[in-house]
Amino acid sequence: MNDLIDKQSSVPSYILAVETSCDETSVAVVKDGHVVLSNLISSQVETHKAFGGVVPEVASRKHVEVITLMLEQAIEQSGIRPRDLSAIAVTQGPGLVGALLVGIVAAKTLAMALGKPLIGTHHIAGHIYANRLVRELQYPAMALVVSGGHTELVHLESEGKFKLIGRTRDDAVGEAYDKVARALGCPYPGGPHVDRMASEAEDVVPLPRVWLEAGSYDFSLSGLKSAVLNALNQAKMRGEALEPSAVARGFQEAVVEVLVEKAVRAVREYGSRQLLLCGGVAANRGLRAALQERCAKEGLELVIPPMEYCTDNAAMIGAAAYLKWIRGEGTDFDAKADPGLSLEAWSVQSEA
């Protein structure tokens, strides 16, 4: 094993990565865990817009339609010959089981055909290590993960070692944004519309902050979502009409204040050297601006990936898979899709 690790650390690595956990099909080639040679993404937003949300069966079918062509194009754009690839990485979980299966079957087939190792990768580890694509990470670090299915605070004691210290007890941030967006009459996906309206609003509808018990790093958003619906219904019963942008601003300010406060407190308590913002909601302008302002005031280093690495993409999977590659940790070819894959269990097993 040590000879393998020495060999892998002395020559460039080229990891082809596949991401199909939800409604984006993505294939990338990443060099040495942080240099993106290609990163193709096929979005299904227009398809699912008609349904007002992601339909799992439709998502799986769309992945099947494009995955083979995208594998070919990603390799071609990278300038790397297939035989020069070091390993094949794929999102193993969490995610929609049917969508995950499409990527896993494609990755296994390619790995077997080329005689390359397979690296099953955790989707949230990918979001966290998307930050490694733009900056060297310093440990210990704290990651604030905000997406359609996840809202978590993750402590990174060292490279690839994850400890979950806080999570949502009900709705994820992205899920709450989409539900509020529907109540405000916004089309799918609603999160960006709420963000835009909040930034343009002149007035604000005050809404509660949900802090939970003292010292907790958990989050809860279902009550805030209910407060939005309550405010809209009460105004309707009075024959009034609340300005949608004012509601959007009140909702966003309530969400952002709690996220920022708990993230900064966690950084202080755990002695983190960096705060990493991760996940699709990391593209939210209100959250980015609030974190930048607060971290500048507190003297904390904040790392935020560019927009193209915030939403689901395969480059982030290649970055996370590199943690396993340099340690000689692969995945058996009988591995299955795991919608409930634990981030802590996926942590690396040894030092590089």
Automatic annotation (TrEMBL):
Any Gene Ontology biological process: tRNA threonylcarbamoyladenosine modification
GO MF entries: iron ion binding; tRNA N(6)-L-threonylcarbamoyladenine synthase activity
Major subcellular location class: cytoplasm
Cofactor(s) listed in the protein's UniProt record: Fe(2+)
Cross-referenced PANTHER family: TRNA N6-ADENOSINE THREONYLCARBAMOYLTRANSFERASE, TRNA N6-ADENOSINE THREONYLCARBAMOYLTRANSFERASE, MITOCHONDRIAL
Catalysis performed (reactions): L-threonylcarbamoyladenylate + adenosine(37) in tRNA = N(6)-L-threonylcarbamoyladenosine(37) in tRNA + AMP + H(+)
Binding-site residues, substrate: V145, V146, S147, G148, G149, D178, G191, D195, N284
Protein purpose: Required for the formation of a threonylcarbamoyl group on adenosine at position 37 (t(6)A37) in tRNAs that read codons beginning with adenine. Is involved in the transfer of the threonylcarbamoyl moiety of threonylcarbamoyl-AMP (TC-AMP) to the N6 group of A37, together with TsaE and TsaB. TsaD likely plays a direct catalytic role in this reaction.
Species in which this protein is naturally found: Paenibacillus barcinonensis
PROSITE patterns: GLYCOPROTEASE
Chain positions recorded as Fe cation binding sites: H123, H127, D312
Pfam families listed in its UniProt record: TsaD
Gene Ontology cellular component terms for the protein in this record: cytoplasm
Broad EC category: transferase
Annotated Gcp-like domain residues: 36-318
Family classification: Belongs to the KAE1 / TsaD family.
Subcellular location, record wording: Cytoplasm
Cofactor detail note: Binds 1 Fe(2+) ion per subunit.
Record key words, sorted: Acyltransferase, Cytoplasm, Iron, Metal-binding, Transferase, tRNA processing
Listed EC numbers: 2.3.1.234
Name under which the protein is recorded: tRNA N6-adenosine threonylcarbamoyltransferase
